[in-house]
Amino acid sequence: MLEQSPYILYSDGNGNIFEDTTLYVTGRTGWDALPIPEDEWIELPQGGQLYELPGRRGIGIDVLTGEMRLCEKGWAVAAFIPPAHTGFYLAAYETAPDAPTLPLFCYTAAGWLNDKTYVPATRIENDIRQDCDGYDQNLVESGVHETLKHFPHNRLVQHLANNCALTYQCPAARNFFLGRWECPIPSSPACNANCIGCISFQPEDETIVSTQDRLTFKPTAEEIVEYTVPHLETAPYPIVSFGQGCEGEPLLMWQTIRESIIEIRKHTTKGSININTNGSKPDAVKALCEVGLDSIRVSLNSVRKHIYESYYCPNNYAFEDIIESLRVVNSYGGWTSINYFVFPGMTDSVEEYEALREVIRSTGLKMIQWRNFNIDPDWYLGKIKVTDTGECIGVKQMLELIREEFPDLKYGYFNPPMERIKGNFESDFAHH
Questions:
Q1: How many CA atoms lie within 13 A of 92 on its CB side?
Q2: pTM confidence score
Q3: Rounded distance, CA 75 to CA 212, Å?
Q4: Side by side, which strands form the sheet with 90-91?
Q5: Degrees (nearest 5) of the Cα angle 372, 184, 321?
Q6: For residue 236, what are the CA distances in angstroms to 54, 150, 164, 204, 429?
């Protein structure tokens, strides 16, 4: 709990960031800038970073008059908060007409007090699997080297090595080469959604670029089984996960995935088989549950049909299919999560809150992964044509209200392994 609000930060445009002690920082929710309550601030976690926001002036509260005004000293500043943390407010700023669209990262409010940077956020998850101090680049590189020797002809292992682990420093791929936890299985070069903020594919005429290049081939079941079985056999708390940021929609490759699951389970009963998906094909999901899929994580920006469909732009499926996929997995006794893109002012609107309660009740949802939405806020709201986000309750309050009403629903940031699903969910298992 801070005794006062932190001061606003600004950048000089040359990579230097300063505080302006004439202004307290504000936070953005929807289109509005607001003061941030003192009890919502935490120190910027390790692995967090500050960005300058070109063409944007931060909005602060004048320390003497209490009036809101712009910080004219430099560009606005936002924080990237690392995985396992959920932000409560976006950075508040005014955007000039010629300002460039921001790249696909999250833009949490940030302030400065007593020589420390603060952000309005919470650690939503004890799991340390993507904490930055858990990665030793030399170990990752030697893991890549060793693994490539074992699987010289496997295109997927090569993709995970050269693209994911070494080029993009993908945390999931790096964990695979360190022989631990969740192992990624990119499986589909195609997608049946046209998400506005797609991280692996952007139209040529768009003003933003995708953060990574998409998988270019269709892996075979043999390629999948070859490297996932050893991982399940030897890794601590093992999970193998179809559906990654560097691919399209895995359910479009459901026959290959089905064949892979059958083969994997012939060789090992260990660990958990998960799919990260848009949930668009309930029949395919059912076919996978029948052969041993353990868990599903469905990604969405909203549980309201019109907000979801205006962002995902689905081809040949509708919002209702997603809800059905969650019900299917639940009916097989599987673990159901949503990967919920948190956007302050949208996620915590009263309308969204009511819709979320309904989805939890009607699907038997087991977990919400409260993920920060990586997108330029103005650009997003403009693209989905939202001019007024309605009444909001605050992200922190929403987390508390949902937890009160659904005490068995788990909160987190990552797919839990079988040990956690079946055992003590809240234990700090990954610290061991």
A1: 30
A2: 0.93
A3: 27
A4: 32-34, 27-29, 90-91
A5: 65
A6: 43, 20, 21, 42, 10
Integer Cα distance of 432 and 424 in angstroms: 14
What CA–CA distances, in Å, run from 98 to 55, 101, 122, 204? 7, 9, 34, 20
Q: Residue 426's pLDDT band (boundaries 50, 70, 90)?
A: low
Residue whose C-alpha is closest to residue 190's, from 221, 219, 148:
219
Query: What length is written for the chain?
Result: 432
Asked whether 178 and 143 are in contact (CB, 8 A), the reply is yes
Residues 170 and 164: beta-carbon distance below 8 Å:
yes
Fold of 132-431: TIM Barrel (3.20.20)
What one-character-per-residue DSSP string does 107-131 give?
A: -B--EEETTEEEEEEEE-----TT-
- pLDDT per residue as tens digits for the range 281-291: 999 999 999 99
d(Cα 336, Cα 412) in Å, to the nearest integer?
13
Query: pLDDT confidence of 432, banded at 50, 70, 90?
Result: very low
pLDDT at 429: 52
Q: Where are the beta strands (DSSP E) in 252-397?
A: 272-277, 295-300, 335-342, 367-372
Tokens 């788990």 found at: 410
Query: 350-363 and 395-405 helices cross at what angle (nearest 10)?
Result: 30
C-alpha pair distances (Å), 292 with each of 244, 262, 279, 304 = 20, 8, 17, 30
Highest mean pLDDT among 159-163, 176-180, 308-312, 414-418: 308-312
pLDDT band for position 204 (50/70/90)?
low
SS3 (DSSP) at 313:
coil
The dihedral over CA atoms of 388, 392, 394, 397, expressed in degrees to the nearest 10, equals -160
Q: 3-class secondary structure for 194-224?
A: CCCCCCCCCCCCCCCCCCCCCCCCCCCHHHH
| Token code pair at residue 271 | 């660990």
Q: DSSP alpha helices (H): ranges in 154-194?
A: 155-158, 171-177
| Alpha carbons 61 and 70: distance in angstroms, whole number | 8
> Residues 368-397: what's their mean pLDDT?
95
What residue ranges do the domains of the chain occupy?
7-123, 132-431
Give the pLDDT confidence of 90-135 residue by residue, as tens digits: 999 999 999 999 998 999 999 999 999 999 999 998 877 777 777 8
